[in-house]
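User: For my dataset I need records formatted as: sequence, then structure tokens, nothing else. Please produce one.
Assistant:
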Amino acid sequence: MNKKERWIWAISLIAGLIFMVFGVYIYRYPIENFILTWLDMEVIGVLAFLAGPGVYDMIERRRIKAIEERFPDFLRDVAEAGRFGMTLAESIVVASSGRYGALTDEIKRMAAKIKWGVPVKDALLSFNQRINTPLINRMIAIIIKANEAGGNVADVLSMVSHAAKETQLMQKERGIEMFTYAFVILTSFFVFVATIIILNNSFMPEMAKAGKAVEESLAKAAVSGNLPVGGIAYREVPIISFLFVLATLIHGFGDGIMIGLLNDGRFKTGMVWAFILLASGYFILRAMGAA
């Protein structure tokens, strides 16, 4: 975790706590004519915590993906140049004239250092330090070792490029396979939300009315016929409805984290999905009058 990411985590945590503490405050000391409820503030607090790290990680992962997708192409071009008898340094300079998307500027910068007389190992390490992605870290380490060992570096670069392509292909296949499970989780969550809307808007109010009617009838019977007073605990209906809403929020958070873990095995990826499901689920409940 770099310094920028630590700052984002800290700011998101502080922002989330501010909203949540304010939610507790308006729960204990209601503010007149205030549009949002205390539960709105609690949900906003959780969303504020999820949004910062989740969005930053999503942007960073997209950057890494864009870089790593083109790196095997660069290695292939370097290997082709090496087959004509060029050294690794010369091959990198020649290959730097190509176009490699997000990698282009960094490759040109590395080639410029080599032209200025910087050793190829130092130029590669500097390039690796600036890019700093898992796949490129492994590939650069292999390239440096192969160059130091001597022999046919072009063959090593070709194998490394092929291995990188195979790794990316496996990741794409895994993503496609996991999408089916993610879709099932998404579907189950929104079915659950629809069920809660039906319960809170139709079933629970009717149950409260029925309970109140039964209690009034039993009270009249007790007065006239000396029968014991009893009935349905309809006063607990608001608490049950609130628990349904709380279950929806927990469901959305847990499902979002699970989708992230299924996609790439990372908790941070799940934070974005948790944000989406939590926000959409609660917004739907509020819009439909079920929360």
